[in-house]
Amino acid sequence: xxxxxxxxxxxxxxxxxxxxxxxxxxxxxxxxxxxxxxxxxxxxxxxxxxxxxxxxxxxxxxxxxxxxxxxxxxxxxxxxxxxxxxxxxxxxxxxxxxxxxxxxxxxxxxxxxxxxxxxxxxxxxxxxxxxxxxxxxxxxxxxxxxxxxxxxxxxxxxxxxxxxxxxxxxxxxxxxxxxxxxxxxxxxxxxxxxxxxxxxxxxxxxxxxxxxxxxxxxxxxxxxxxxxxxxxxxxxxxxxxxxxxxxxxxxxxxxxxxxxxxxxxxxxxxxxxxxxxxxxxxxxxxxxxxxxxxxxxxxxxxxxxxxxxxxxxxxxxxxxxxxx
Amino acid sequence: xxxxxxxxxxxxxxxxxxxxxxxxxxxxxxxxxxxxxxxxxxxxxxxxxxxxxxxxxxxxxxxxxxxxxxxxxxxxxxxxxxxxxxxxxxxxxxxxxxxxxxxxxxxxxxxxxxxxxxxxxxxxxxxxxxxxxxxxxxxxxxxxxxxxxxxxxxxxxxxxxxxxxxxxxxxxxxxxxxxxxxxxxxxxxxxxxxxxxxxxxxxxxxxxxxxxxxxxxxxxxxxxxxxxxxxxxxxxxxxxxxxxxxxxxxxxxxxxxxxxxxxxxxxxxxxxxxxxxxxxxxxxxxxxxxxxxxxxxxxxxxxxxxxxxxxxxxxxxxxxxxxxxxxxxxxxxxxxxxxxxxxxxxxxxxxxxxxxxxxxxxxxxxxxxxxxxxxxxxxxxxxxxxxxxxxxxxxxxxxxx
Lengths: 324, 401
What we know:
heterodimer; A: mainly alpha; two-stranded antiparallel ribbon; B: alpha/beta; Rossmann fold; four-stranded parallel β-sheet; 14 helices
C-alpha cells in the first residue's frame, strides 16, 4: 500500500472511532469501551509474550491489581476516576517488575507455571480477611459511574456517561498504543526481540538480558493494570469472582488469535474475546464454550499468524496486484 | 418509507376503533398485547454452572405456560444469557437485556456478586430486578433500592434459627463450622455469630473454610474433629456437604450436625453421603423435596414431576434446584397474573410487593409468601427438620425472623 493510501485508511479509522458512540446504542458503546480496555491489556501481554517470548498465564492478576487499585482509591480515598488510571499503572509497574525479578530464573514453561500460580491465587488473595476493609472481601466494591466533565457541557457538547467513558478509554488507549509503538519499534523493541530469538547472541551484543526481561515484565504489567483500572470504571464494580484464572487464559487466547508480536493484533484479539463468546452463547446455550472452541480452532487453522498476520498477507497480495 | 407508515396507520386505526381498551391497557417497554419479555442471566458455564439448571427449569416452565395459552393471553418470552458467574459479564448481559432486548424486567439473576454488580444500574434505570437468586440479606432494602427484590429466605436468618436451637438444646456447646469461602458461606457464619450473641466467641471453637475448587474437604473435617467440637455446622454446597457428612462418620466424629438448607436434598446430598451416616442431621426447609418419600404421593410434587418429564427431561429430578426454579417461576406467574393489563414496570414492582399470604403448593405446608411496600423479602419462614434415616421429620413451629 502506498503511504498516501495508508494515511487515508488511518484517517478513516480515526473518524470511525470518533463517530461510533453516536451511531450505535449505549449498550454497544459500552461493549466497545470494553474492547478498548481489553486491547490495552492485550498489548501489555503482547509486549511480554509476543515480543519478549516470556509466557504469562497470570496476567489476569495484574488486571485485578489495577482494577482494585482504582476501586480502592475511588471508594476509600475519594480519588477522581481519571487519577486512578495512572496510579493503577504505577502500582502494576512496580508489582510486575518485582515479580519479574525472581521470574528471571525461570524459562519457558516454568515461567508459565509461576505466573499461573499468581493468576490462580489472586481471587483468594482478594478475599483475604485482613484486607477486607479495603477490598470489601467477597462482596467487592461498587464504584460510582463517572459523568462527562462540566466543560464539555458548557462547550455545548452533550453526551451521556457511556459515550464519555468510551472517549475516555479511547484517549487512554491511543496514548498507550502510541507509547507502545514508540517503545517497540526502536532500540528497546529490537532488544526484546533479540532476547526472545536468541538470548545468548543478544547478551554477546551487549544487551542486559536480566534488566530488559524484568523491565518487559514491569511495562507489560503496567499496561494490563491501566486496562484493569479502566475496566473497573466501565463495569462500576470489582469482585474477586471477576478475576478468575479464566481471565488470564482469555488474554493469552486474545494475543494468539490477534497476532503475536503485533501492535494491531491487540485490537483484533480484543474484538475476538469480547464478541465471540457472545456469538457462541447465541448459537448454543447448552455448550457455548464448545462453540467458542470451534471458532478458536478455525481461527488458528486458517490464520496461523493471527488476524494481524492474515491482514498483513492480504495487504501484501493486494499491493502486488496493484503494482502489476 | 411506505412500510414504516403501515404500523403507524394500524395504530391510528386501532386507537380510533377502541379508545376504551387502550385506556385500560398500560405498557412499558417489553410488554404488549401478545408478549411479555423477561430477561435473565444464569451461570450456564464456569465455576457455579451447577446452578445453571435453575435457568433451564424456568425456561422450561414458561414454555409450558406458553403452550397453555400464556398469562392473561400474553406469551412469555424468557431471554436467558450465560454470565459464567462473572460480574463484568453480568453487567454486559443485563445491559443488553435492558437496552437492546427491551425486556420489561429482569428476573432471578443468579449470584450475590453478579446481582451486586447490577444493583445500582437497575435502580437508576428503574427496571425491576425481581426475585434475585441469592440468599444475601441486602436485597430487602425497599427504601434505598425500590426496584430490587429477593425471594428465598436469607442465609443469616436461617443461621440465626440454628443458633437459637443450639443454645436451647446444648448448654456446654462447642461448635465447629465448615463454610465455603465466599459470600454465601460468610453470610451463614455471620448469622450464626449474631444468633449466638455474646456467647459466640466461646461457643465457636473452630472455623474452617474450603474453596469451590477444592477436591475434597477431608482435611477440614479432621481439623474440626481435633478441635473437640460437639456441634458441627455444615455450610457446604451439595457436593462438599455430602463429603463432610461421610468423612465425619468414617473417622468416628459424632457431633450434633446442623446442615444448611442449600444442601438439604436427600437425593443430591444424603444418599451420596450414605443414608445411615446421615441419621440425626438437623436442617431447615421451605420447599418440598422430591427425593423425600413423604411427598411421594403429593399432588403438587406429582405435577412438578410430570412437568419435568415433559418439558425438561434432561433435568435431574433429585436436584432441589429444579424444584426451586419451578417454585420461583410460579411466584412470578402469580405476580404477572395480578398485573392484569397494566404491565408497567411500576405495577410489576407494586404487585410483587403486595402478596398477602400467597401459598405456592411446592412450598412446605404453612410457608407462605408475604410482601409489602416496606417488606421486600417474600419467603421469610422455614421449618426445622431432622433426618430419620429414610426421610425428613419436620418438628417445631414454622419459624421466621
